[in-house]
Amino acid sequence: MLSSNIIHVPLAVYHTFVLEEKYGFNRTTPATFITDILKSWVLTAVIGGIIFSVVLWFFYRTGSLAWVYCWGAVTSFQIFFMFVSPVVIMPLFNKFVPLKDSELKTAIESYAKSQNFKIKGVFTMDGSRRSSKSNAFFTGFGKFRRIVLFDTLIQKHTIEELVSILAHEIGHYKKKHIFKHLIISIFSSGVMFFILSFFINNRELFSAFQMEKTSVYASLLLFGLLYTPFEMAISIFSNMFSRKNEFEADEYAVSTCGKPEAMIMALKKLSVDNLSNLTPHPFKVFLSYSHPPVLERINKIMEREIS
Ligand SMILES: [Zn+2]
After folding, report:
1. Residue 136 Cα, ligand 1 centroid: separation in angstroms?
2. Total-model pTM
3. How many domains does the chain have?
4. 261 is annotated as an active-site residue
């Protein structure tokens, strides 16, 4: 993993300091770039190391049900990190500051109140440290749930637009999209461990790779190679599901805010600021877009207004 990460460093340098720079997005300094890489390597080694050891241990020590134990263990880790990462891991990379008392905060609170939504925290994040692109997202569960607005987003949008964006994020929560995504991902990791169990120490698999001795850790590596196309198929389905959810969250935002123009303007500004492709090829959308193209989203909102 380390060697593959090292190979990717020059590509990441090119992406940040050549491509993003060329279109005026880059704000990352070389120092931030280097510390980001080092931090993520340490995190991968520690967290990945623990998970990997647990998986290896189950496959060495338990019998035919090892895949079930692995599934259980990985799912527990996953849920644990969904709770703690907004509080423990994400602050390693960005500063999260609770939104200060302002006209914006009052507007957000009064909207949330009107929807019976208990806000646990609205934070601004210093996205501008790395890029001029803007975004907003919902993260965490239960007590730790928070809505995060990039500082770049706040600079460029009016209060009505920001409330619409926030309403869209709350829509994801109210329509249980986050929960459904978790269920789907737990289910697909179960399928993955089940298939993996057929490949552990599988003689034919090892001979296909011209290896004489079988071992659990080599099985995991070889399975990783085989699993890639399968993973791609899964991601197509999860993107389809995600695009459907985006329309639902837009619908929720427009129907609860009653300000379709603000939502449309917010989407337009986001596309301009992030230089989004307005007319991506439908096949590209099918393969890899987690969000519908912005024109489709705007059309849906306008259709709703007409009908
Ligand atoms: Zn969304």
Report:
1. 9
2. 0.87
3. 1
4. no
